[in-house]
Amino acid sequence: MALTRRLKWLALGITLLWGLLLAGCGVQPPPVETAPPLMINDTVNNAVLTLPIVVADRLGLFAHQHLRVILRPDPAAPLSLSWAGSRWPIEGVLAVRPDLVLVSPIPDPHFRLRALRHLPLFLTPAATPEEAWARQVLALHQVVGNDWKVIPKAEVLSLWAQRRLPWVMVPLSEWPALKNRAPDSRILAWIGASTGPLPTVVITGHPARPGQLTTFLAAVNLALWYIHTTPAAQVAQLIGRPTAEEIATIRQADHYGIWPAVTRLDPATYQRGRQFWATGWPDYETGVRNQSADAALTFHGW
């Protein structure tokens, strides 16, 4: 079993390497301007969690399969990126952990989440889409009686520089700016560390054109492999944001296991999501449709 898995990853790596060599030799992907667009409704609006789609596009993986992917808010789109639990059935998964972190301008090596009981919890507006995750995680740690307060980012930065805010919850993309304002700042807790992988950002819907979903998922699988095996600096260079902040964000997101190995949603991860939310998710056979995700795993011969 282990040998088979290694051979599959080797085949996947060879496929991606060949594509990169072609790009490096000046071979351009097939033109896709005339191809029908694959519209994807982005209801998540989180650059970290949706990074694999951007990477797949920049690597030319969509173009080589005659796909023209357009990711934007569009309720009429046949495919959607959404937070888990909002749409069914799930065709694939793009993120398996939230990217929220609880940070402080003052290091506290003995910090525990339970110390937050009955204390105010601050978060930036960018963190509010994932607030439900945070509340659920804190509930698991018996953290109750909190007064949740949203503070504008500019105000947070000002208070942070003066060490006048004890802690704040932010997405990973905002953490480097706080670190720059107060170099001694530390991540007190990563929201999601105690849950294990569970569906976070999922892919739902089905394009009208046969095979488009399989092709899309296969390209994203390659992008996921690239992210997991490539230095963060190189990934940041690829997407055109080679800053120290972006590199740190990508490195931390990969370290925290935010992105899955492949888009196929396995039963254990789904079941963990059902238990975590306890809000009447359907069983796995009803809530997940794996035909396209399974086909995507053999799309490149692995």
TrEMBL record:
Full protein name: ABC transporter substrate-binding protein
